[in-house]
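Model: You mentioned two targets. I'll fold them one after the other.
Researcher: Yes, keep them separate.
Model: Target one:
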Amino acid sequence: MFEHKNYEMLTLEELIAEQAKVYKQKNPILIFTGLALSVLIFATIKETQGFIHYVLPIVLGFVLFKNLQKLNIIRKELDARRSKENFRRE
C-alpha cells in the first residue's frame, strides 16, 4: 500500500489505471475512519479505557492521508502530461 512508484515512468494508460485504483480505495478508508472516530467518541462518553480506541483512528487517519497524498501526486502528473499534450497540439 505504501510502495513508492515513479509515476513519471508510467504510460498514460497505466497512470489512469493507478488513479482509478487509488480512488476506489478512498471510500472504504473514509468509512472505516468514520466508524473508528465514532467508536472513539462512544468510548470517551462511556469513559472506557482501551489502547485500541485511540490508536485505530490515528492509524486509519494516517492511511487516509497517505492515500490522498498518492492521489494528489497522480493527479499532478496527469495534469502535467495533459498540459504537455495541449502544448504540442498548439
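Model: Target two:
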Amino acid sequence: MSCLRFGPVLLLAAIAQPALASHTLCTFSGSQGAEYYELEFIGDEEAEPVIVFSATSIGGRRLTLERADTVLERFSRGERSVSLSFRGRGDASQPPSFRLVGANGSARLTIGEKAIEGSLDCES
C-alpha cells in the first residue's frame, strides 16, 4: 500500500524537473567527386555542441570528435557561421586533421590540400 501512496509523488517529482533536450543545431554537407562529408553539431543553446563527423572516405561511419582535439573558435546557429579546427591523431579511430570555416550558410572544409565547398544548414 505504501508503494501506491508514494508512486504519484515520485511521478510528479520527475515531471517537475526541467527537460534538457539536444537536437541537431546545424549540419555541414559537402562533396567532391564521389566523396561526401558531413559534420553535425548536436546540442542545445546552453553548451558547446557535440560534433559528429561522417565521410565516405571512412566508410560512412559517424565519429564523435573528441573535445580535446577540437578547437571551436566560433559557432552561431542564428548567423549560420562556424570556425572549427580538428587535430587528428593519425589513426582510424578519428578523422584526419581538418578545418571548417563558414558564414551565411556556406562553408569550406579543408583536409590537407583538399578544399570541399558545402552548405551549413541550421535549424531555426
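Researcher: Noted. Anything on target two?
Model: The chain has one domain: 19-122.
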